[in-house]
Structure formats: structure tokens, C-alpha cells
Amino acid sequence: MGHVINVDDIEREGSCTYEFNDDIKELENCHVNSDILFRSIGDFIEAKGRVKGKITLDCDRCLNKFVYDLDFELDETFAKKSLYDEYGQELELAQGQFITDLNGEKEIDIYDLLYQSVILALPNKKVCGINCNEGLFVSDEEYKVQDSRMDIFKNIQIKK
Ligand SMILES: [Zn+2]
To answer: How much is the pTM?
Structure first.
């Protein structure tokens, strides 16, 4: 069984809350807990909530695994109608504010929403702690990794 919410239910109620408390199995030892408030606003569905949880990451310096506490605000907007065909899957409204096109889908996949949100919430530089002693002789530049998550945004071209 998946974690999905029906768009019609949100529209009928005006708003509803989905309580997610589960593992994200694609990520290592990742558990996420969040009450997400879905609101229907015209042609859009807004999803907001505080996300808390844990995930195991690999330290970029010493390569040891460490537990990272997740705590961030989820803020997503979905378009009910396929308004943004020419822009692709996502359209940036303002900085960091994206609209996801539902393409007429009647369900929102909350598991996928949280999976994507956790990935975006991870730090660029993953360091196990202030006491990490490995890599002391490595300069900042050398372990600055290319953030491939930003690559998807390079593909968005807005036609005029
Ligand atoms: Zn470390």
C-alpha cells in the first residue's frame, strides 16, 4: 500500500492533513515523520508541513557513516490542470518555489513527495561532526562536490 492522497478529497474538504510516519526505503536507515496539510486553492494544491526524521549518510571527509537529523519545512505546490506543458515538469514561481504538474492525475504520491523533499534537504557537504579529524589536510575546494541535484533545474527553459 502506498501513501497517496486523493485530489478530489482535498477539493471537497478544502483542506486535509495526512500523517506520514514511515521509512523511505530507497534511502539508508531513513525514517520520516510529518503531518502534511494539503489545501485546495483554485487550480492548485498546496502542501505544507514540518518534516522530521533521521537518515544515515556517508561523511564526505572520513567516509564513515553517521546519523543525520532531518528537520525542515515542506512547501510544495501542485497544479491540478496541465497548465505548464511547455515548461516541463516543474516551473519555478519564485526562488525555491516550484510547481509540480499533476498532469491530470487524481492522486498525489506522498511517499514520492517526501522522498524528493528529503533528498533536496540534505546538506551539500556531508560531514559527520565537528570532531571529524580525517581530511584535515584536504582543502575546502577539494571536497566541494558537484551538486547534481541542481542539474534538473538547468534543463528548464521558459519560452517567451
Ligand atoms: Zn567524518
So the answer is: 0.74
pLDDT digits (tens, 9 = 90+) for 74-105: 999 998 876 655 555 555 555 556 678 887 78
Tell me, yes or no, whether 160 lies in a domain. no
Question: Is 159 inside a domain boundary?
Answer: no
- Separation of 134 CA from ligand 1 center, angstroms? 6
Q: Name which of 80, 13, 16 is nearest 45 in CA terms.
A: 80
Which structural domain, as residue segments, surrounds residue 53? Answer: 4-154
How many domains are there within the chain?
Answer: 1
- The pLDDT confidence band at residue 119, using thresholds 50, 70 and 90, is very high
Grid coordinates of 32 = 520520516
Distance 143 CA to ligand 1 centre (A): 12
